Amino acid sequence: MLLAVTAPLSAVDIVAHRGFSARAPENTVAAFRLAWDHGADACELDLHLTADGGIAVLHDKDTKRTTGRSMFAAGTPLADLRRLDAGSWKAPEFAGEPIPSLAEALATLPPDHGHFLLEIKCGPEVVPELARQLEVWKPRASQLRIIAFDRIAAREAKKAMPWIKVYRLSSELSRDKKPVDLDALIADTVADGLDGLDLGLKWNWNGGLVRRVRAVGLELHVWTVNKPEDVRRMAELGVDSITTDDPAMARSSLDK
């Protein structure tokens, strides 16, 4: 049973997953710019701490999948990572697109609208440097969110940057393939002083799930939604944002 939604479906934020990753190479400046150009409300990106204490924007620990060359972010200086071609695998027109730094990705953010969801992919070790780099963004705090699967990383990020909203990410199954206890997850999120949950589409989404999260004052977000019928279903349930590889498709689905 769906919840009654008082706001129009088009009011739900559309988050471009790793930028407009359906059309451009994920986690690149090209993908973020394309997302903004197509009216995305937000972009999600992934963060790794590099060997020299920088922050690189890439999903995997190893660069092999998106560059064809194997380098581990934790063992490689940022400048060396940036020399890799992270675009050719997607299409010839993106040849030479580099792995960006966090600063380069954030520089694509329009000054008057939109926001970034910054996913911590490594662990809490990145938090001090992340806090240092984001200090200059305090006047634009409303344009930043931090998300993390790792409970400690999320909790430490909130402690270090209480002025930024932090959401806990969760799949429906734990690492040992057991169902995640939603009530325990909610309790942990509240205890850690976080601002919301960002749950995978494979959860058993229904009005009861939404009510349980809303009852404790948490925001509720969903990832990764790539079918029009699922976009509409999530919007009808009243989530705050929908993360998708194709923000143009998602927005079109809600505008119909």
CATH superfamily: Phosphatidylinositol (PI) phosphodiesterase
- Going across the major beta sheet, what is the strand order? 1-2-4-5-6-7-8-9
What is the CA-CA span between the terminal residues?
22 Å
CATH architecture: Alpha-Beta Barrel
Helical stretch tally: 10
Biggest sheet record: 8 strands, parallel, barrel
Q: Can you give the helix content as a percent range?
A: 25-40%
- Count of spatially separate domains: 1
How many strands appear in the DSSP assignment?
9
Describe this structure in words.
It contains ten helices and nine strands. With 256 residues, the chain is α/β, with parallel strands linked by helices. The protein has a single domain (9-61, 101-255), classed as TIM Barrel. Helix 5 (127-134) runs parallel beside helix 6 and helix 9 packs across helix 10 (247-255). The radius of gyration is 18 Å and the shape is globular. The protein starts with 12 loop residues before the first strand and ends with a helix. The model has no long low-confidence stretch (mean pLDDT 96).
Primary descriptors:
alpha/beta, 9 strands, 10 helices, 256 residues, TIM Barrel
Mind sketching the topology for me?
Layout: E1 13-17, H1 29-37, E2 42-49, E3 55-57, H2 64-67, H3 78-82, H4 102-106, E4 115-120, H5 127-134, E5 144-148, H6 151-160, E6 165-170, H7 182-191, E7 196-200, H8 207-214, E8 219-223, H9 228-237, E9 241-244, H10 247-255
Parallel strand pairs: 1-2, 1-9, 2-4, 4-5, 5-6, 6-7, 7-8, 8-9
Antiparallel strand pairs: 2-3
Helix pairs in contact: 5-6, 9-10
